Amino acid sequence: MPHDHHDHDHLSPSGHPYRKDNDGQLTYWQTMEIAIRELMVEKGELTPAQIQAQIDAMDARSPANGAAVVARAWTDPEFKQRLLENGSDAAREMGFDIGPMHLVAVENTSDTHNLIVCTLCSCYPRNLLGLPPDWYKTREYRSRAVREPRAVLREFGVELPADMTLRVHDSTADMRYIVLPARPEGTENLTAEDLAKLVTRDSMIGTGLPKAP
């Protein structure tokens, strides 16, 4: 299973991972996107500045947004209940614009672990977690997460007890999931801000756990 955070052997001298040159022929959909975008600008429906502003807003989204939601749920029982009942409204309550997306929060407990996948493509709660990791979009993860989820989790360093229930949730274009990981022990005196620093991106997908305090 590929891990985008374990690519230490493929770093350039600057310390950044090597990427293939993006100079190949445009796909059909890329060509269509450019044509429609230029047509909308030409018709006055959008301006280049509006398009760039939206791109900047999308690029600014990161797992820190989701971590703030998780930390709030760890410290506010009433908010946690609202999050589990209606993830979309709870996220909006914290000021995160998730659009029309139906967000479902699933809670990890002492006897249940949740894992998120999109078997069709790469549906992902980008509004809260930013761009999905490269491995999340691979055919290998999308198939194996359903077929052999415990083996996949072991490759991410998560070993579940044999008697723990493992639930795999398949995201769709209309419904996205976020895992509410179990709060680490020994964090009773931490603030929500400090707790958010313990929440990892992978823990909100289910392929990882929060950091130890």
Molecular structure report:
Residues 1-11 have a biased composition (Basic and acidic residues). Pfam families: NHase_alpha (PF02979). Belongs to the nitrile hydratase subunit alpha family. It is an enzyme of class 4 (lyase). The protein is of the alpha/beta class. It has two domains: 28-59, no CATH class; 62-205, Nitrile hydratase alpha /Thiocyanate hydrolase gamma (Nitrile Hydratase, Chain A), CATH 3.90.330.10. It contains nine helices and four strands. The chain is globular and about 60 Å long. The relative contact order is 0.16. Mean pLDDT is 89; it is low at 5-16.
Short description:
This is nitrile hydratase. The protein has 213 residues and is of the alpha/beta class. The chain has helices spanning 28-42, 48-59, 63-75, 77-85, 87-93, 126-129, 139-147, 149-155, 192-196; strands spanning 102-107, 112-117, 165-170, 175-180.
* Average predicted confidence as pLDDT: 89
CATH architectural category of the largest domain: Alpha-Beta Complex
Question: Looking at this structure, what is the CATH superfamily of the largest domain?
Answer: Nitrile hydratase alpha /Thiocyanate hydrolase gamma
Helical content class:
25-40%
Strand content: 5-15%
Rg measurement, Å: 19 Å
How many helices does DSSP assign? Answer: 9
Q: Strands of the largest sheet, in order across it?
A: 1-4
* Global morphology: globular
Domain Nitrile hydratase alpha/Thiocyanate hydrolase gamma: 29-207
Region (Disordered): 1-23
Protein name: nitrile hydratase
Organism: Litoreibacter halocynthiae
